[in-house]
Predict the structure.
Amino acid sequence: MSSSIDSVNPWLVAVVLNTILLGLAWIAPKKLLTPAGLFHAWFLAILIWITLGWQGYAVVMFYFLVGSGVTRIGMAQKEAEGIAEKRSGARGPENVWGSALTGALCALGVGIINSGFFVSTTQWVMPNTSAILSTSPQSLLLLAYVASFSTKLADTTASEVGKAYGKSTFLITTLQPVPRGTEGAVSLEGTLAGIVASVAIAFVGWGVGLIDLLGVAWCVLAAFIATNLESVIGATLQSKYTWLTNEVVNIFNTLIGAIASVLLAWTWITFIN
């Protein structure tokens, strides 16, 4: 599959493919993105295809489709309770970049390194079973890329499942019962769903060759760490600062997940050596 796709001009493939998908999303009865969100998602998708190919594209598309799907779980109930995402879950530009800015920067870093523009380095090769010992900038950025989306999908799934099905919801900082939808609230149902989601997308990253099996573990663990820290931020800081919107918190969330995955990998490499 990759050889036939890679033989075509990647810019042409990226523009044509994403323009077709944009058109389909535009006429779809269920709007997953606002008109402005469609344009920003189009730009993001082209960036990912050009820098990471169909492999990186598969990860971001998996996040978008599954994330949009879980947002609609129990939508009528959540709207009635006033805890649903605005616009019935349709993503705007702020949502696109709140979720994907960290991943986009990781992808851009890989693209810059592979171009040889700043760093003289060997051509990137898809990670294999020996990649667990690799500390090349490309492999670490790829790990961070997958971890950022593992983190965001875990956060989205945990939040939406918790709001829809959480029987007991607790504030993460005090463990006191709070209403569903409260910033910083966690539930057993949401937490378990978030872990499952992070495992699923991490395995997508492994399946397309961006990370190895050990990288899957780092992504899942980093997602768990970052998602809980995001809940702490929501419980302690978000209400105190007007600039700390959900989208800004999402950027911090994915950044923490990306950094945590790299630190976990470095710690492991240091330990086994």
The CA atoms of residues 48 and 232 lie 31 Å apart. The mean pLDDT is 84. The beta strands are 169-171, 185-187.
